[in-house]
Design a protein that fits this description.
Mean pLDDT of chain A: 88
Oligomer: homodimer
Strand content of chain A: 15-25%
Order of helices and strands of chain A: HEEEEHEHEEEHHEHEHEHEEE
Largest interface: A-B, 102 and 101 residues
Largest sheet of chain A: 7 strands, mixed
CATH architecture of the largest domain in chain A: Alpha-Beta Complex
CATH topology of the largest domain in chain A: Phosphoribosyl-aminoimidazole Synthetase, Chain A, domain 2
CATH superfamily of the largest domain in chain A: PurM-like C-terminal domain
Shape of chain A: globular
Chain lengths: 358, 358
């Protein structure tokens, strides 16, 4: 092929038959490998000094911009069904990008909105989703300033499809932005409330499961909550919204980035009763299920009480809990202490048990 | 539906059965209506003063950012086939977003890259496209700083799919950026070379048509060419890359925005011999076919010679030509003066004759 040459990524005969699997989209080991082996190396190979941003593998990049850096991020959303209890693909798209900016210690300013519409999509459904996008943007206080619209074919029997990409730009708020390399042994891991509700609500809607207490997606813009933390003077060492791969995925990334370990206390992990039941029925571990309104926060032990008090005064942090501790144990692993006192190593999922959840 | 309420867009019974057609994606009248009626009104309804950017309907938004504005844009690419003579979806995605920023009179700085991979996509093909993305970014001198990867199902018999979204940020270069409201009667319309090559190359590849002189996509980053124009002191009144809807689509937008008319001289319109033949075989008008390396430039009569000289010294402007004139004729229309001296009003296409060309 004339487009490949000696700068290509050593495509061997063995690899040349490799094809993309649904599991490549899951935020697990397989996806990490795809990104590290096939996507990042070419992008990071150029001379432009900004190109090393691609290798940082954070959800957003900080781009120097005179005196005020631009935090820049992008996210595509392919969730099915398009509407589910507690939200829809539009709300998800706004919250996902707002949260990716907020966890960098930045205030989201403006979003782009790129729609890929499936042929046959009812315009009324599109209008409902546009309204939901508008409301979520209003909650977050961001403007949607630019957009793009494309249409793709849909074949008979497929459900109406809509894919949304939101990119976003934000302003850094703090002098020492959260960064995995600021994490120290002894730091604590906080989450702002019940985990796994989003993924379980989507899965339940997809499978037609009904529960007595209906599960609702937690999709919410967290930028105001995060700004309050920053304003209070709490030094947030690291933050990440726990989307694909769940809380366990974020903590596995922390271990990879720091060489430190994380010990999670199952008894301190906030999971609602309906979520616990749904997870059991679906055979899923709430720690690995996607959220869209939950942030994993790493702070020093001395800030824990103040942070929990502050978070719990906000509706989006009412059920905040301190669920884990960073340790210097080797090798770098996420370990779960069960309710009965047993210890279990949490593996990063290989693919994904719940595809197209975001 | 509990997500609609009295702020919704008056969904009438008549509208409620309306569904998205492929033609909604074509950059024609139907797409304009979808955007103006269903997409922009909710986004522009919020109190945030940046929200009026959504109503400007330019391809990029200028976002105030301390002393240095951020030009922000997004574009999704759904072209089939993924590879075609002269380029591929990756090159297209980089060039499209770079050009959207450049035509605002800005220098592109950084792009995001969001991939939606179809299940079954060969990883080798993905790697070729990543390499092409890298090369195009290198040509443009931009870095790809952040990204996202999702996977969607593909059904039996469908070709491997890949959808790419690139968003981008850039810095304004000039004190008086190009803007349709700076266009005056008597101004001239320049294009930087042969039109329609991109759309015709993609269509020919799709239809399996072979021509003696093969048509190649013109996909190219135009930012350096445009920066040279700006550096030379030529006052560019307005610029737009002629993608979906072609040169005629850009000129129809000019008429809508200014209330002025445009007269195009067919004899001065640069179309290569192979493109002319292909357009005839496919029953298409080159003026309405998509490009990805062509920019429509409006300047004053007195700048025309200088601009053409400068453009023609650059490989991307070698066949630049002055093909039209802005007039104060009413009503605001694009009119074509044919080779035989006849006059024909160019209608904005209703849908699109060539879907999924970008």
């Amino acid at each position: 092929m004339n487009l490949t040459d000696d700068t290509s990524m050593n495509i061997t005969d063995e690899q040349s038959d490799e094809r993309i699997l649904m599991a490549h989209g899951g935020g697990g080991e397989l996806m990490q490998r795809l990104i590290r082996e096939h996507l990042v190396p070419p992008l990071a190979s150029l001379a432009n000094p900004l190109c090393n941003k691609a290798a940082e593998l954070t959800d957003s990049a900080v781009v120097p911009w005179n005196a005020a850096e631009v935090v820049f991020t992008t996210d595509s959303f392919v969730v099915t069904p398009l509407e589910f209890p507690g939200g829809d693909i539009g709300r998800l798209a706004v919250c996902g990008t707002v949260n990716d900016i907020a966890v960098m210690g930045a205030a989201p300013v403006a979003l782009s909105l790129a729609l890929v519409l499936g042929e046959g999509l009812p315009v009324e459904l599109l209008s409902r989703i546009m309204l939901s996008i508008t409301r979520a943007a209003d909650e977050a206080g961001v403007a949607i300033v630019t957009g793009d619209t494309k249409v793709i074919e849909r074949h008979a029997g497929q459900p109406p499809a809509l894919i949304i990409n939101t990119a976003g730009i934000g302003r850094l708020l703090c002098a020492a932005p959260p960064d995995a390399n600021r994490i120290r042994a002894g730091d604590r891991v906080i989450v702002n409330g019940f985990i796994a509700d989003h993924g379980l609500a989507v899965m339940s809607a997809r499978e037609g499961l009904k529960f007595e207490t209906p599960l609702r997606s937690d999709a919410a813009p967290l930028n105001h909550l995060i700004a309050r933390l920053a304003d209070s003077g709490i030094d947030v060492r690291f933050m990440r919204d726990a989307t694909r791969g769940g809380v366990a995925g974020v903590l596995a990334d922390v271990c990879d980035a720091t060489g430190l370990s994380v010990v999670i206390e199952e008894s301190q992990t906030p999971v609602s009763q309906p979520a616990r039941m749904a997870a059991e029925m679906l055979g899923l571990d709430p720690l690995t299920v996607a959220n869209e309104g939950k942030v994993v926060i790493v702070i020093s032990e001395s800030d824990v009480m103040k942070a929990l008090e502050l978070l719990r005064t906000d509706p989006l942090g009412r059920n905040a809990a301190c669920m884990g501790t960073i340790t210097a144990d080797r090798p770098a692993l996420v370990e779960l202490v069960t309710r009965t006192g047993g210890r279990r190593v949490m593996q990063r999922p290989y693919g994904e048990s719940t595809p197209r959840i975001c």
